[in-house]
Design the sequence.
């Protein structure tokens, strides 16, 4: 799977990139929404890992752009700042949420859930 990791924190990007590559995924990183939007336009992304709170435009802005462009990668929000209302709204849109600080198992579980959503024969699609 091709995964785009978007986070303004270098250490978070590095950790996610390294961990996801170890599991056989192709990983691209972006440090802000503008960089990520350009990569979404030029790459065929399967999963978008995104932080919500970043300087300038935030992750919510990018989630909106994903729908507008017609490219529908699965979205995993990875943030310490998700209100209960926003969390519910995101979950209703099919977004996975990982709260910072997170464990590697949570990252792997979220990716597996996204993979199952792409598989028409998986049990995750029938729920």
Sequence:
């Amino acid at each position: 799977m091709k995964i785009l990791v978007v986070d303004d924190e270098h250490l978070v990007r590095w950790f996610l990139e390294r961990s996801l590559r170890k599991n056989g995924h192709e990983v691209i990183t972006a440090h802000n929404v503008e960089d990520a939007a350009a990569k979404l336009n030029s790459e065929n992304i399967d999963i978008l890992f995104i932080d919500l709170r970043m300087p300038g435009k935030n992750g919510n802005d990018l989630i909106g752009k994903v729908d507008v462009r017609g490219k529908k990668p699965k979205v995993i929000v990875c943030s310490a700042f998700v209100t209960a209302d926003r969390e519910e709204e995101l979950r209703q849109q099919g977004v996975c949420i990982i709260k910072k600080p997170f464990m590697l198992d949570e990252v792997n579980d979220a990716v597996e859930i996204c993979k199952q959503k792409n598989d028409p024969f998986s049990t995750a699609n029938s729920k």
Remarks:
- The chain has one domain: 2-116.
- The longest strand covers residues 74-79.
- Residues 87 and 127 are 19 Å apart (CA to CA).
- The beta strands are 2-6, 26-30, 47-50, 74-79, 96-99.
